[in-house]
Design brief:
The complex is a heterodimer. A six-stranded antiparallel β-sheet of chain A has the order 3-4-5-11-10-7. A three-stranded antiparallel β-sheet of chain A has the order 6-8-9. Chain A has a two-stranded antiparallel ribbon with strand order 1-2. Chain A has a single domain, classed as OB fold (Dihydrolipoamide Acetyltransferase, E2P) (Beta Barrel). Chain A has helices spanning 35-41, 88-91, 95-98, 114-118, 127-139; strands at residues 2-3, 6-7, 13-14, 19-23, 29-33, 46-48, 55-56, 61-67, 70-75, 80-85, 107-111. By secondary structure, chain A is an alpha+beta fold. By secondary structure, chain B is of the alpha+beta class. In chain B, the strands form four sheets. In chain B, strands 10-11-6-2-1-12 form a six-stranded mixed β-sheet, sandwiched between helices. A four-stranded antiparallel β-sheet of chain B has the order 13-14-15-16. In chain B, strands 4-3-5 form a three-stranded mixed β-sheet, with helices on one face. The longest helix of chain B has 18 residues, at 97-114. Chain B is elongated and about 70 Å long. The interface between A and B is medium-sized, with 24 and 24 residues. Strand 9 (70-75) of chain A pairs parallel with strand 10 of chain B, so a sheet runs across the interface.
Chain lengths: 142, 347
């Protein structure tokens, strides 16, 4: 679905830091940045993906990205262990800009408390998400 | 907010204190200059690739990797650093990156203007005067705070800046030096003199207050120094210094927004192609092609360089294709696609 000019696939969950979470059939959670996040970030030059096996805590920073000489922190969308990082981003971080919901994915997480933590996330079709995005777009002048 | 005017400080403190202030739960504006020179690289940079570490070691020039973005810089006491640490809910920390840069750099622009330098903001994070960079800036999110660091450049040692960088050869170094001279200016260069630092600080503080609200002069809390001491072992370790980057086949030095000196090498079937170029605002401004490939007649190489100079980076492939289609040129094992690959500008 679209909110403003931004696409938000309905098959995933979103947090208030503009990350998405896609729960795969194998139980892993794929995390990425939303279309809105990549737009406000601008051209992403570098990312520093985490090592496999790292423990993540929902809402806590675990990796960095750089755009416009600005180093930002990316927070974990759910708690768990890093099962895989997107190695292609090390060479081509602009994939996040070009394909935020596909080839620009960040990490795959083996979740440790999925059911409880999904309750902290939003579906794009929810009124809560629509209201949140409206406020965010106003805040960022988008 | 507090104003921490620290004067000249040991070089390491000129970096550690703004990393420590947000970690200690503080915020404010720090003004300082390093007592001795050093080299500082960006968070995502590879020190071994960017800096001539042997030269720096031999000459006692420390190298530091900051948590802030951007490239390698030579820093010394002829620069006045401002380090702004804003809590996440501060009104000046709201909005996207460009609006925060624009908001926080406006006081710096106005400071230059107040002393008679026609400075202007150049998105996303540069300040220029007469088209030349006169302030370097970078930012980061540290311990949840927005941190922006930058400098007023009173004077600059262009030669040393070009010397401390790791470059493929002296020709590249010379290109970096000349491009720096052409594209980076200073207060001394613009005014023919350097106003007293206290005078600059007074204007800068007044202008920051217009954006951030009143700034109360204060002593930096002991807790911030304690956190800086705790950070020092990790942030001065080789593991930290060398842990930030990624290897690449290109060498690229950013001089200011939109101006790069690049050297790329590409091994084509017919030989190695080297391209040394200056890219300005997405166009090839200068170009030298070399390598061990063959091209007949020989003058075609110079003609090819001239055809490419002025071309937009995005048009390189079509310029090359047209060149090969319209001129009698033979370059066994090296085609237009190989030149295009050698001219690929690093992201």
């Amino acid at each position: 679905m679209k909110i403003g000019k931004y696409e938000f696939p309905e098959d995933r969950y979103y947090d208030r830091d503009h990350n998405w979470a896609l729960v795969q059939a194998d139980g892993l959670v794929v995390q990425g940045l939303s279309d809105f996040a990549q737009d406000i970030a601008g051209e992403i030059l570098y990312t520093e993906p985490p090592r496999q096996g790292r423990d993540l805590e929902q809402g806590k920073p675990f990796m960095s990205m750089e755009s416009g000489k600005w180093v930002g922190r990316i927070k974990a969308v759910v708690s768990g262990k890093v099962e895989a990082s997107n190695a292609e981003l090390e060479e081509n971080s602009a994939l996040i800009n070009k394909d935020p919901y596909g080839n620009g994915w960040l990490v795959k997480i083996r979740p440790s408390n999925l059911e409880a933590e999904l309750a902290n996330l939003m579906k794009p079709t929810s009124p809560e998400f629509a209201e949140f995005m409206k406020a965010e777009m106003a805040k960022y002048g988008k | 907010m507090n104003l921490y005017d620290l004067g000249k400080v040991p070089w390491l403190h000129s970096q550690l204190l703004y990393h420590a202030l947000p970690r200690a739960g503080g915020s404010g504006v720090i003004l300082l200059s390093p007592a001795t020179p050093y080299v500082c690289i960006g968070y995502h940079q590879d020190a071994a690739q960017e800096v001539d570490l042997d030269f720096c070691r031999e000459h006692g020039i420390p190298v530091f990797r900051r948590e802030v973005g951007g490239g390698a810089v030579y820093l010394d006491g002829n620069q006045l650093f401002y380090q702004i640490v804003l809590p996440p809910d501060h009104p000046a920390a709201q909005g996207d990156k460009e609006s925060i840069y624009r908001r926080l750099l406006a006081p710096v622009v106005r400071t230059y203007q107040a002393i008679g330098i026609p400075a202007e903001y150049k998105p996303i994070n540069d300040i220029i005067a007469g088209g030349r960079k006169i302030s370097g800036n970078g930012a980061a999110e540290i311990a949840g705070c927005t941190v922006l660091v930058g400098n007023l450049i009173l004077d600059f040692n262009h030669e040393m800046m070009a010397r401390v960088l790791r470059v493929p050869d002296e020709k590249f170094r010379d290109k970096v030096f000349k491009t720096l001279k052409d594209n980076l200016t200073t207060i001394r260069q613009e005014l023919g003199r350097v106003p007293p630092v206290d005078e600059l600080k007074a204007v800068l503080v007044r202008e920051f207050e217009a954006v951030l609200g009143p700034l109360e002069p204060a002593a930096l809390p002991a807790e911030v120094y304690r956190v800086a001491d705790d950070l020092a072992p990790r942030m001065t370790s080789d593991e930290w210094l060398l842990g930030g980057g990624r290897p690449g086949r290109e060498r690229d030095v950013k001089i200011q927004a939109g101006v790069h000196v690049s050297q790329c090498a590409y091994k084509a079937r017919g030989g190695l192609i080297r391209a040394l170029m200056v890219v300005r605002d997405e166009r090839i401004a200068e170009l030298e092609l070399s390598g061990d490939f063959f091209i007949y007649p020989a003058e075609r190489l110079g003609e090819l360089e001239r055809a490419l100079i002025g071309a937009r980076v995005s048009e390189v492939e079509s310029v090359l294709a047209e060149f090969y289609q319209t001129r009698a040129v033979e370059s066994p094992g090296v085609g237009p696609a190989d030149f295009a690959e050698a001219l690929r500008v690093p992201a």
